């Protein structure tokens, strides 16, 4: 009787499972700092159109923090981290997450800045003993560390407070901290509110973000990964040929004025090809992580990169 009941229950469960459930590809959707390609891709449903013929659904979880993206990838809930900080990619690989960097998302040294409001702070040297807010273990943190080194200073010469971009900018504008690390719209709005750029990433960091894919997915579906990259390049072509519409979509999605998008856009290099200089920048980023005690086990950066 117990066997009959178990069989009956199994049949009931099978009867309610969806027949022919579609496959799914999940890629993160990150709008900030000014991710025009991602906005164009989502708004125009470029990935949906590319994968629909194979019955594949595309979903866009809004996971913006790098560590959360790589954790989701490790758990198998996302296949692509579409705009991932180089620091996050390296830290995840060091922790054993099986991922590959398949393209550069952007390089934007001028868009990543150290801001101050106090008129007496005109250089990095003026920050000695002062409070600096910013996100720990990120490209912006690397910018601060490199700028301090250039000024013959070290991490102990400032009081670094780990904060997200909005919180750090708010603390700067309220006078709670003396300087804040920011990028994209947060930096733009802070300057409109009276903050000034003390230093940006030029000559210090390339502020490289990457596109990463889950290693198992790449090995099982290399054709789909190539199709993903083809769609990404389509978005870049659209941005060149339909610039005004791309800016309009970005302004609508970010809440910025079109004029603000136009002003910030030239700060970004969205060329996806992985250059030798990009690999060297990732190696410098790994050195920063190790030197600051954020990374114990190094990775083979060259092996982490896959060119398709």
The side-by-side strand order for the widest beta sheet comes to 7-6-8-5-9
Unreliable parts: 1-20
**Secondary-structure element sequence?**
HEHHEHEHEEEHEHEHEEHHHHHH
Per CATH, the superfamily of the largest domain is Periplasmic binding protein-like II
Estimate the global geometry from the Cα principal axes.
globular
Number of helices: 14
The CATH architecture of the largest domain is 3-Layer(aba) Sandwich
CATH class of the largest domain: Alpha Beta
Strand segment tally: 10
The CATH topology of the largest domain is: D-Maltodextrin-Binding Protein, domain 2
User: If you average the pLDDT, what whole number results?
Assistant: 91
Structural class: alpha/beta
Domain unit count: 2
Percent strand: 15-25%
Distance between the termini: 57 Å
Q: Fraction of residues in helices?
A: 40-55%
The gyration radius over C-alpha positions equals 22 Å
GO molecular function: ATPase-coupled transmembrane transporter activity
Organism: Aminithiophilus ramosus
Domain Solute-binding protein family 3/N-terminal: 35-248
GO cellular component, one term: membrane
């Amino acid at each position: 009787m117990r066997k009959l009941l178990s069989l009956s229950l199994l049949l009931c469960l099978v009867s309610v499972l969806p027949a022919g459930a579609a496959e799914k590809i999940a890629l993160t959707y990150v709008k900030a700092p000014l991710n025009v390609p991602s906005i164009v891709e989502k708004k125009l449903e470029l990935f949906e159109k590319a994968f629909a013929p194979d019955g594949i659904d595309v979903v866009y979880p809004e996971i913006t923090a790098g560590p959360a993206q790589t954790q989701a990838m490790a758990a198998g809930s996302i296949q692509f981290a579409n705009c991932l900080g180089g620091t996050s990619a390296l830290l995840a690989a060091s922790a054993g997450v099986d991922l590959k960097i398949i393209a550069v998302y952007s390089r934007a040294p001028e868009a990543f800045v150290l801001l101050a409001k106090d008129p007496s702070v005109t250089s990095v040297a003026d920050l000695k003993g002062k409070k600096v807010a910013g996100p720990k273990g990120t490209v912006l943190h690397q910018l601060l560390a490199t700028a301090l080194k250039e000024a013959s200073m070290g991490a102990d010469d400032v009081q670094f407070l780990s904060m997200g971009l909005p919180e750090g900018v708010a603390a700067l504008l309220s006078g709670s901290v003396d300087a804040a690390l920011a990028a994209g719209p947060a930096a733009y709005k802070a300057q409109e509110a009276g903050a000034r750029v003390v230093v940006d990433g030029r000559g210090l960091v390339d502020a490289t973000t990457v596109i990463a894919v889950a290693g198992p997915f790449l090995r099982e579906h290399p054709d789909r990964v190539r199709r993903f990259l083809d769609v990404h390049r389509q978005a870049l072509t659209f941005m060149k040929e339909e610039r005004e519409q791309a800016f309009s979509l970005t302004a609508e999605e970010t809440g910025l004025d079109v004029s603000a998008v136009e002003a910030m856009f030239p700060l970004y290099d969205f060329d996806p090809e992985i250059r030798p200089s990009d690999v060297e920048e990732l190696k410098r980023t790994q050195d920063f992580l190790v030197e600051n005690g954020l990374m114990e086990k190094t990775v083979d950066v060259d092996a982490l990169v896959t060119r398709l």
